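fwd from M.: "can u put these together and see what the complex looks like"

so here's what she sent:
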Amino acid sequence: MNQTFEILGFLLIVLTLVMQWEINVQRIIALFSASSFVIALFLVLLGLSRPNEEYMLFILAGLTIVVRGITIPLVMNRALNRLNDKPWRVREAKPLLGVGGSILLSLVLIAIGYFIYQNSLYSVLKVKSGSVPFALFLQASLLIITHRHAYIQMIGFLVMENAVVMLSGWVFGGLPFIVEAGVILDLLGLVVVSSLIIRVREHSILKVGDTVESELRG
Amino acid sequence: MLYLYSFIEIIYVLLAAPLIIGVQRSLEERIESKQGPSVLQPYYDLAKLFRKESIVPQISSPVFRFGPYAIVMFYAFLAMILPVITAFPLPFAPSADFIGGGLFFGAAAAIKKFSAIDSRSNYAHLGTSRSASLAVFAEPITVLIFIMLGVISNTNNPFVINHVLRSSPQWYFSLVHGFVLAAFFMILIVETGQLPVESHTNGELGMIDQAMPFEYTGADLAMYKLGSYMKTFILLSVFLNVYILPFGVPMESSGFWGIIIYMGIHLLKLLGLIVIFALLNTTVSKFRLYKNFDYLAVAFAFAFLASLAYYIIK
């Protein structure tokens, strides 16, 4: 079972690498949705391997699919459709780092995540592949730092959340259900509020013009 | 008997290499609903070129003339030391391990570049420069892939790697092997010049390997082409026999007829890979030249993740 968890963990790392590579916002949202399904699969398998708390993990997996896998991508895509005439053409216009550079930096962060975990938490937790969520967390930070598009930054934040869910499930084993479910549902509210803010911001920029936008960027 | 197997192996590679290329080209055309050339077209081309006179640029040195012959010689040697039709080492195999084989591949590529530069044609220079700048990034990835398999099997011997992968499912189905496979497949596309890295047209903006033999004619060009066919054939064979399908490659106990039967199976395996390449070449569009380096970055990412997965899972 451990090997399956490791495969899923690395699959998430690869998906985040692809997000780093991709510039089209709709595709990044689809990739996030895919990564949420992987997290749900991870929770189901975790439930099967821990018979004591299985039903809670199954409910969490269901919530993850409904909230992260379906609703959040749907809300984001709808907002994207409302804001743009051609939503499929919305992309990160000028990524701060080139594709090659960002992939290499991402790899460095994965290695750093491994060394940090190995030299700090590993001696306490004794879970061999616990560095995977750490790596995912750092990769998501990179996704936020290297992109200017608000949606991609939000996806970066959600990937960070995925990493936290994975860390709590895998390494710490069973936080109270109400906490985990609360975190997942909390995200929904966060996305709705963020979408509203993004929409209001875009509208005000459209009305006032480019000069204010450039001032906002600092 | 082992010397006979070596001899059979060289003859097999020399004869079957053009066939695989012919099948791929014919298949690509058929996928696009065209009639396409015969699968034997590369043989016809080689036969025609061998009969023709070679013209050599006045200002070139003997490197230009002898380059293609040296390349074919190198690949013939590689055919004898790598597991193409046997899973046991033949008499010349101890002369080089996996890294040594990689060095021979590198040497053949270097000779190819020197002889192309020696033609003093601008197009050959352009192709050489592009090919060299890709190779600078592709070679370290190849070395990393070999090192990772070396770490798994505690050796650099391709025959031992074949045995380890066919006999231990925990390594065959491991993440390390999966990432190595993905990285090697991506490098294979670069080395054998498939899309999305390279197309087989003479479009100036994207051509790499097509530009290098621009000044070659006649028998020299035939040898040059034969060298390319052999390189593709050997690389695909190594990928199949060592990495992806190490099962069923004959051992010494399989005997003479076992090896002869395996040649047919090997051709079928190659056919499977060729179908994948043909599908890629007909469905994927070419990257811009500078995008190729991003592609190599992804290949490096897989090779690097293989090493990381090894340490994490260990």
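replying to her w this: Residues 2-217 of chain A form one domain.
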